[in-house]
Amino acid sequence: MSIATEPDAGSTLAVSRAIDALAGRKIAVLTGAGISTDSGIPDYRGKGAPVRTPMTVEQFLSSEAARRRYWVGSHLGWRAFAAAEPNDGHLAAAELERRGVATGVVTQNVDGLHVRAGSRRVVELHGTMRRVFCTHCGQVFDRRDLASRVEADNPWILVPDNVALGPDGDVLPESSDGFVIPECTVCGGVLKPDVVFFGEFIPAEKFREAEQLVHASDALVIAGSSLVVNSGIRLLERARRRRLPVVIINRGVTRADARATVKIDAGTSEVLRVFADTLPSAL
């Protein structure tokens, strides 16, 4: 299968070099927001991305007004976010795993699209929007159930057909006046999405799981990440210390282009599909 976007000669050559570097190896796949743009979810730093100032965990936990604003925006974006479908990049990653080529996926995304695409071993470094938990008692809630409760408590809320969706499923609300903030039905505590907010650390056990996946692999493919977030750079360095081939697929520059075995400046969906169609099965 050829790359749908008809890459220039340089990108085509880079894809061929990457296939040569990856052939016969077990691959760990690390993905960022760029893999989900073809599903209608924007990224934070790609070309044309709006300037955003995400809420920090300190703001969320310390201010009721901040939580009210967050939950209004999060609910408005949730329906559109949850309706996004896996694209060919997600499906190709799942296919590579099924055929024994990939050991699994480490993702910086919270959209759950790798799971829905059929990937079985998925390390969600930054958590998932599928769950909400109580910061006091630890009770976990399904986000779909919480969305129904939010709408019951706030019947005046209308979810628009088109929203300026953010990478985390959030939108910037015009107003949050009168919004009833959802609380834990067990203890009345503060509810928080099961995601790593800005200002939070990735749980140590979650990063160890990602390290183990990379350690069980013979190569690392990074797809759709500018590698601004340190977790991605740390995993890349784990691979480089073991002298593993590192292939980066991303439109535009990343923090680690000079450290890659091969850098492919092209779309993740098209290139991962080429990998899935070309690399030999390991089963």
Write out the CATH superfamily name of the largest domain.
TPP-binding domain
Q: Could you give the order of the helices and strands?
A: HEHHHEHEEEHEHEHEEH
Number of strands: 9
What's the pLDDT, averaged over the residues? Answer: 88
What is the overall silhouette? elongated
How does the major sheet shape up?
6 strands, parallel
- For the record, the CATH class of the largest domain is Alpha Beta
Radius of gyration: 20 Å
What structural class is derived from the secondary structure elements? alpha/beta
Total DSSP helices: 9
Q: What count of structural domains?
A: 2
Task: Describe what this molecule looks like in 3D.
By secondary structure, this protein is of the alpha/beta class. The chain folds into two domains: 164 residues, Rossmann fold; 102 residues, SIR2/SIRT2 'Small Domain' (2-Layer Sandwich), CATH 3.30.1600. 36% of the residues lie in helices and 15% in strands. It has nine helices and nine strands. A hairpin with a 5-residue loop joins strand 4 and strand 5. Helix 4 runs parallel beside helix 9 and helix 7 packs parallel to helix 8. The protein starts with 8 loop residues before the first helix and ends in a 5-residue tail after the last helix. 43% of the residues are buried.
